[in-house]
Amino acid sequence: MEILTHPKEMQSKSLSLIRQNKSIGFVPTMGALHEGHQSLIRESNKNNDITIVSIFVNPKQFAPHEDLNKYPRPIEQDINKLKELQVDILFKPEVEDMYPNSFLTTVEVQGLTNKLCGLSRPDHFKGVTTICTKLFNIMIPTISYFGQKDYQQALIIKRLVEDLNIPMKVKIMPIVRDHQGLALSSRNQYLSEDMINEALKLNQALKLSKEWVKEGVLDPAELKIRISNFLLKSTHIIIDYIEICDPQNLEPLNYINNSLFIGLAIYIDKVRLIDNAIIEY
Ligand code: AMP
């Protein structure tokens, strides 16, 4: 596996691969790799000549009070995992090379970003779209892979790619969960065993919601109350949001028909966790 750190060097490499007619699959990550990331990488390996993974903990998507400094960075472990997965190239840039002192540009998608996670993390998606635009211009991928775990992010990236005519496909891969149903996340490392038991309530609420919808609960307000009552049985959970939306555009639904997106965000002892499900019925 080749490890490249400089954006110019990475871009030259991608241009030379494109000249050789190679398809490039790209998986952007912040590292602390788990089975969720690995599912994206395996899909890229299956469908492309070359797979590039980036590891970059992007400061622009963290608010000052968030966990930028304590975000896990087990780089040696990550490199070993990527080698095992037979990734072709790891792009691991330094912050000062991605954001030199002269840097002045922000890329922003409107509308889709000012709801759900955008309300409690106001500048987060601006950071995401700015770094992803840079990474797409450096990697020039044929397809980029994103997880449904961050469904709002994936929809925003799809909109960005379409609106700015970025010549690339976006593929959204299903949420990978552990054996108990907890959606894998690098931030799960912050959870003690007791907190994990609380965190499991997220997926339990989503499963219950599926049953309730099947039983005929088609009023989003009623569904929200049921989810809220279930989650708040635990005194350790603080709800950030419970949203029932149209999966295409994340607009709130007044009535449930055909399909719905349920997005959940909670805090357990200051650790913020998100989960979601798309229900078709
Ligand atoms: P991150 O390193 O958290 O920025 O995530 C990098 C990519 O992996 C994003 O597209 C995430 O949506 C995706 N991802 C993270 N966790 C999971 C998961 N449990 N299942 C599927 N994809 C995931």
Distinctive features:
single chain, 281 residues, alpha/beta, six-stranded parallel sheet, three-stranded antiparallel sheet, 9 helices, 9 strands, globular, binds adenosine monophosphate
Walkthrough of the structure:
- The chain is built from 9 helices and 9 strands.
- It has 281 residues and is of the alpha/beta class.
- The strands form 2 sheets. A 6-stranded parallel beta sheet has the order 1-4-3-2-5-6, with helices on both faces. A 3-stranded antiparallel beta sheet has the order 7-8-9, with helices on one face.
- Helix 6 crosses helix 7 and helix 8 (193-215) packs antiparallel against helix 9 (220-231).
- The longest helix is centred in the last third of the chain and has 23 residues, at 193-215.
- It is globular, with a radius of gyration of 19 Å.
- 35% of the residues are buried.
- The model has no long low-confidence stretch (mean pLDDT 97).
- Bound molecules: adenosine monophosphate.
- Adenosine monophosphate is lined by residues 29-30, 36-37, 39-40, 146-147, 149-150, 173, 175-176, 183-186.
- Adenosine monophosphate binds at residues 29-30, 36-37, 39-40, 146-147, 149-150, 173, 175-176, 183-186.
